[in-house]
Amino acid sequence: MNRLQSPEAGAQPRRDHRLRLSAVLAVGFACTLACTTAVAANDNGCQPVFDAMSKMFSTPTHIYMTETAEFHPGKTTAHEVIYAGGTIYNNMQGKWIRSSMTVQQMMDQERENRKEATYTCRSIGEEMVNGQPASKYASHSETEDVKSDSQIWISRRSGLPLRLELDSDVGGSLGKSHRSMRYEYSNVQPPAM
Questions:
Q1: Is the model's pTM score more than 0.85?
Q2: Full set of structural domains in the chain with CATH
Q3: pLDDT tens series, the chain, 193 aa
């Protein structure tokens, strides 16, 4: 079972599904999108997704996410995440918090997550996203805890993800959720804290 630390400094690893799911999805969301090395090697359609998510981890990035979920019926929540200087910053309730997990630790966690999941992905066309030509991919992944279907738009110019739409089902009382993410790369700086 995957374990992530909560954003608070010094926190112990937790099994809280909401925290783990939010951290994985909001902070990088490579878990349900990035293809395993084995899948990427066997399916050329997965390699661009794998490459884009890996590149995003090493690029200053500002992620804007909205979420609707069965565990918060009728409510849309907004989250932001910034990767800058090897540090991850989370804004989940109007306050920026420096994560105890570094970008390198997140990359290592994602490598571990990929070992525990099965993935399929395929190219589904080309579209413009914020004036940029993008290749669009569909992905399906399953772990012990989560089943996800997503669409990701990858910039044809930079090879970085531009947009992501994700539907997940964790079962039980947490149930289904939908997340929309927008990735920005210009003038990304650590937030004022």
A1: no
A2: 17-184 (2.50.20)
A3: 333 333 333 333 333 444 444 443 433 343 333 333 333 334 445 678 878 988 998 899 999 999 998 887 889 999 999 999 999 999 978 899 999 988 888 888 777 766 677 778 888 999 999 999 999 999 888 888 888 899 999 999 999 999 999 999 988 878 899 999 999 999 999 998 7
CB 7 within 8 A of CB 90: yes
Q: Are 169 and 176 in contact (CB under 8 A)?
A: yes
106: burial class by Cβ within 10 Å (0-12, 13-18, 19+)?
A: buried
Q: What are the C-alpha distances in Å from 158 to residues 33, 46, 58, 161? A: 18, 17, 13, 9
